[in-house]
Design a protein that fits this description.
The chain is of the alpha+beta class. It has helices at 5-11, 13-19, 33-37, 89-92, 95-99, 122-140, 166-179, and strands at 47-52, 61-67, 70-76, 107-109, 118-120, 141-145, 148-160, 181-186. The protein contains seven helices and eight strands, in the order αααβββααββαββαβ.
């Protein structure tokens, strides 16, 4: 079957790039028939929520696209003075963190001496944490040490992750200092 010049130019991207208006091959010249019909996942979003990538201490800005109450795409936030629209491969894949099958959706607890994880209700887990903090603080409280007033506990420590942002670190420091803990550190500084 003879190939018409129109079919030829539609089918061969290099020719389209050289003869059409898309000289850099970043638009129509690089599209196939199929990709011409596609639209981005972001096009159907009903709202865009500003957020911060949770993976590392750089804190790149993210635009979180939401459709029908579900996150459908996460992209770099061009308004962020930190990252100016860019995300590294980890940040670009953070949609999996919210909707992926590997995401943990339950509180898991392994009791002392236990060999397996058990599911706990969130309220119960929070109450257990609170009880243990109160008991540890009470049992390890020191008013004085070596003749000096210290008013502290060495029984509680905090090690934050690099994914915590400024505001979260501020609140953690405030909470643990108020409890009398002095061992307050963040992984990003290690
Ligand atoms: S996008 Fe990459 S560099 Fe930016 S905060 Fe996330 S993990 Fe860190």
């Amino acid at each position: 079957m003879p190939v018409t010049s129109e079919a030829w130019s539609r089918g061969w991207p290099v020719l389209r790039q050289l003869t059409g208006g898309d000289r850099y091959g970043r638009g129509s010249a690089a599209q196939s028939r199929r990709s011409r019909r596609l639209s981005p996942r972001t096009a159907a979003a009903t709202r865009v929520v500003k957020s911060v990538c949770p993976y590392c201490a750089v804190g790149c800005g993210q635009d979180v696209y939401v459709q029908d109450g579900k996150v459908t795409q996460i992209e770099g936030d061009a308004d962020s003075p930190i990252s100016r629209g860019r995300l590294c491969p980890k940040g670009s894949a953070s949609l999996q963190l919210t909707t992926g099958e590997a995401r943990g959706r339950h509180v898991l607890y392994r009791r002392p001496g236990g060999t397996d994880w058990e599911r706990l209700e969130l309220d119960k887990a929070m109450a257990m944490v609170a009880d243990r903090v109160v008991k540890t603080r009470r049992d390890t409280w020191e008013w004085e040490s070596e003749g000096a007033r210290v008013r502290r506990t060495l029984g509680i420590a905090s090690l934050g992750g690099a994914t915590l942002d400024n505001e979260e670190n501020y609140l953690l420091k405030k909470l643990f200092t108020a409890l009398g803990a002095i061992q307050i550190e963040n992984q990003a500084r290690i």
